Amino acid sequence: MAVTRQDRWLGPAMFAPALLYIAGLVGVPLVLAFLYSVGDVTVGSVGYHFVGLANFRSVLQNPAFRGALWHSFVFTIAAQLIVIVGANVLALALRNPFRGRGLVRFLTLLPWVAPISLGAIGWKWILDSIYSVVNWALVSLHLVKPFDTPMWLGEPSLAMISVILVHAWRMLPFSTVILLAGLTAIPRDIPEAAAVDGAGFWRTHFEITLPMMRPIISVALLFGIVFTFTDMTVVYILTRGGPYDSTHVVPSYAFFAGILGGSLAEGAAASIFLVPILVLVAWAMLRVAHRSEVV
Amino acid sequence: MAIVETKDLTKVFKQGQLGAVNDVNLLTREGEFMVFLGPSGSGKTTLLRMIAGLEEPTRGDVLIGGRVVTRLPPRERRIAMVFQSYALYPHLSVYKNIAFPLRAQKVPKAERGPKVEWAAGLLGIGELLDRKPRELSGGERQRVALARAIVREPSVFLLDEPLSNLDAKLRASAREELTQFHKRIGTTTIYVTHDQVEAMAMGDRIVVLNKGLVRQVGTPREVYDEPADTFVATFLGSPPMNLIDHGDVLVGFRPEHLLPTALIEGPAVAITARVTGVEYLGNERVLYARIQDGRFGDQRLIGRLPSVYRVEVDEGEVVALGVPERNLRFFTKDGGRRTEPRGLAWQ
Question: How does pLDDT run across B202-232, given as a tens digit for each residue?
């Protein structure tokens, strides 16, 4: 087939908007972040001086940042563990038809489709120090004393747990939908063959279903880790990193230091720490997905 | 080894609708090779799945070895099943596929190896043990599925159209192998198929099903020669049995029994017919004809003329055909049930 002049331009013309969009909204900020992280820019400055790795050194020496880096890992790993286990359970429960399955599926998806700010504000009230319904319920059940209720967002370890749980709540629908797709892709014959072969529920699940779903679980995990590692919405709305910086994660630290604190260079340097970790995670997960591909 | 029995076994998928399986009462013999034969939608697979425990009956009972197993899960029924798709575990090697039932039944590790070797050897797949299912051909997959089924020496074998994914040539040899295999193992086997050739060739007895009802149970010879009703008569045999409308009955005869009168010995009914088409198939000629007789209208006939007979038959020709009287079968007009033979006066 002859390539006409039109054909040669049509293709590039069609994908140019997407390319421009990504270059403008992802590429430019990324390049800027790299530039800022080795410069001395602040929100108010007009010049740019190259300072080498000084920003990285100063950020690393800051205990608040080191805490945030550590919290990022705790936050991501704990939230993803809860999400993957929960999504597995939900996907299994939603696989077979039952009365009201449509409604349960809808409710499961709700945290994902509703705006996160709304959800998180709802949680802020649920976990409020005075008006918390959780505490009200605990008091009513005589599990805690009326004037000594847990401060869900006011105590470092409880705050971290709260942030993790709310984020897991938010990510759960996404993973559930992916796992459900993976689960329904397994031919019905295979678990049935396992049942005839003498395997019970657990053996079938751990030795047949889960290994067959490994590629799709890898994909769900990859997306989940990236979303969680780079996200600050829940932290920002619920705790703003507090109490005493105990729930700061790298993205929220970078935002507070760089945008609210005005030190763009420090914020940029902090956020650059996400890059190698994310690249590594993406590479590892794609490898796993590729290797365990099954016919 | 064990006997399988069903009592009034019924499965209704949607309430108010006709069941997929209706009041089926069957009893296998010890070590028998029983075939469930029927068109798609006849309920044969549902029936098998209820025996396996993969489908819960709406009503009725399943007995294996005299024990009621209706409410037991598949793993407590001591059965093995080969699925149409083979349902091999794609992420496990052939060895691990075959060993899986042993692991599931907590056979000690030391005993598993020899058993897997034995099953693999029996099916001639000893050198494939390290492969993954995706690296196997259709025939090899089928053998692995069989090896996985026999490895724990089940009391009953259930096979759901295991040959339908093989090409025609392989299917014929696999059929023969399966028969030999059954003779060696001697385990009671239930085999589901829609292929009458498989059913005739392999079955000790055939259960003919249609619309969830058992139409006939009998040896291949019985269901072919003495069909219980017009469904069995026309479902078995290719081309199917001729059914001629005659007064208050339907008269049936197999195409191979419709021959030129000159070739028939003994008493026969004569039919004058105009040949509308001849297919030469090498080993035989298939004749398409219409009866030339006002009283019986313009009914169609199909005949099979073995090539050993060198009679000239041409298209358009009016020929004198006949059917030996002993080969006539009679069916009622309403319901198509088998009925008493009677005298015929066609000419």
Answer: 999 999 999 989 999 999 999 999 999 999 9
Under 8 Å between Cβ of B158 and B2: no
In sequence order, what are the residues at sequence separation of 6 or more whose Cβ sits closer than 8 angstroms to the Cβ of residue A72?
A229, A249, A250, A251
Question: Taking CB atoms and an 8 Å limit, are B104 and A197 in contact across chains?
Answer: yes
Class of domain B4-225: alpha beta
Neighbours of B302 (CB within 10 A): 17
CB atoms within 10 A of CB B290: 15
Q: Model pTM?
A: 0.78
CATH 3.40.50.300 segments of chain B = 4-225
Q: Which residue of A has its CA nearest to B49?
A: A192
* E strand spans, B132-178: 156-160
Residues B211, B212, B218, CA angle at the centre, nearest 5°? 100
Cβ separation of B87 and A211 shorter than 8 Å? no
Residues β-bridged to residue B272 = B320
Phi, psi for A188 (deg, rounded to 5):
-60, -30
Domain B239-332 belongs in CATH node 3.40.50.720: no
Spatial distance between the Cα atoms of B5 and B15, rounded to a whole number of angstroms: 25
Cβ of B89 and A187 within 8 Å?
Answer: no
* CATH 2.40.50.140 residue spans of chain B: 239-332
Give A-chain residues touching B89 at CB under 8 angstroms.
190, 193-194, 208, 212
- Give this complex's ipTM: 0.81
Query: Between chains, do A197 and B101 touch, taking CB under 8 Å as contact?
Result: yes
